[in-house]
Amino acid sequence: MTPELALRARAEAEASRLPPLLARAEKLAGTVLLGDHGRRRAGLGDDFWQYRPLMPGDSYRSIDWRRSARGDSQFVKDREWQIAQSVLLWVDRAASMRFASEEKLPQKADRARLLGLAVAILLNRGGERVGLTGFTLPPRRGSEQLLRLAEYFSDEDAEEYAAPEARGMIPHARAVFISDFMGDFEGVEAALTKAADRGVRGVLLQVLDPAEEAFPYRGRTIFQSVGGAMAHETLKANDLRDRYLERLAERKDRLSHLARLTGWHYECHHTSSTAQSALLWLWRAIDGGAA
């Protein structure tokens, strides 16, 4: 089995535990794409949903005479409302994401791309169009799109840190950004500001290794970036702990504040926690629930 197919199989397993996700579109009029799936309520569409009794205001031409002939009441055939939402994904593939403090823990990159693809599977099952930010992979539906996403997520970037891709933001779409957000904060701020200007709402999921949260290092320690471009040696790593934790808390506060300002949701997920807990949070947040 290729790495891409193995990744997809694992993401399918995670997604199978949740019901299909229908992203709630905002400001639908004039900004949505008409799709061929139902959103489980009456409206414009071709697929049958349900029979209901004739009500005042209904046209007699809408009566289903075959169903009505079974009894004394007249029935109307409702069809499902067919509107597909575009959801844009950005999953950090930079070198910083390839960190894992212990062999038993997954790399941040592994957890991020698993969650990103699982979300795409849920959205696809719900009939939504899923793609990438930028112009590499525009939102589409179908299994072929999921395979393209798996292939893309499996590639790695050489750069140490990455900022969200802000190009190609479809007005009034939804977006999912998954990263450790340890790089330049201005890049995150620029991306969310641009998204907000286009009416795009979404979620920020920060993925961290538990060691990055606890800073358990003592004594002589060599800190080196995963990509090898940066290194720092100290004889008293514990002296750096308070300063580091303060800066990390500040970064998380800035992300949370930025998310609130732009109408997004923010959450921090640790690789020591289950992928299912993060997927459940993503499902609720994208679907419009409280984060």
CATH class of the largest domain: Alpha Beta
The count of helical stretches stands at 8
Q: For the record, give the distance between the C-alpha atoms at the N and C termini, rounded to a whole number.
A: 36 Å
Residue fraction in strands: 15-25%
* Helix-strand sequence: HEHEEHEHEHEHEEHEH
* Cα-atom radius of gyration: 23 Å
Overall shape: it is elongated
Kindly report the oligomeric state of this protein.
single chain
Major sheet attributes: 5 strands, parallel
Low-confidence sequence ranges: 18-48
Give helix % range.
25-40%
Q: How are strands sequenced across the largest beta sheet?
A: 4-3-5-6-9
Structural class: alpha/beta
Provide the CATH topology of the largest domain: Rossmann fold
What is the name of the CATH architecture of the largest domain? 3-Layer(aba) Sandwich
Describe the structure concisely for a colleague.
This protein has 291 residues and is an alpha/beta fold.
Chart the SSEs and their pairings:
Elements: H1 3-15, E1 48-53, H2 65-68, E2 75-79, E3 86-91, H3 108-125, E4 129-132, H4 143-154, E5 174-179, H5 185-197, E6 201-208, H6 210-214, E7 221-224, E8 231-234, H7 241-262, E9 265-270, H8 275-286
Parallel strand pairs: 3-4, 3-5, 5-6, 6-9
Antiparallel strand pairs: 1-2, 7-8
Helix pairs in contact: 1-3, 1-4, 3-4, 3-8, 5-7
